[in-house]
Amino acid sequence: LLREAMLGGEIDCIVHLWNTPTGASTHIELERGRRLGFYSVLYLAQALGEFSRAKLLPVLVASTDMQQVLREPALRLEQSLLTGPILVMSQDIPRVRARSLDFASVDWTAEQGKKLSAALLAEANVDSTESLVAYRGGYRWTLAMSPVELPAPAAESVPLREREIPAPAVAEAA
To answer: Strand 132-136 vs strand 139-142: parallel, antiparallel, or unpaired?
Structure first.
């Protein structure tokens, strides 16, 4: 299916929804996380890598309760396996921009369908390099990193000496 669509040039966006279970869970489903999270996204990336494309292709991978933003009590830790393939996909495959979109499971309901579909559509149309996005309480949260300047440590507190290589520890033979 992907091969036919890519050769026909008909794909404008891919939305991966396999990691959006509803309801809070404290049980870690590691095998489910591997299969539906890590491997499904990895296989998608491998398939996309076989095709060249002229325009940018957004790949949106939705999840529920993967990220803690507002001190949510229950997280689905197995879904963190999604982040590896998502972060690497945009770097390794030309003109593919993968993004993780995490929603609170309490918001992932039929009643919220219009809001959720509007958020997905907006994400598909925004030109963003952000890889990790979370929606909580009607707000879009992104991961931001900023440099922190640390004072230089005192020379005596650094256990290194110039031009000296420590000898490896040798276990004594019994």
So the answer is: antiparallel
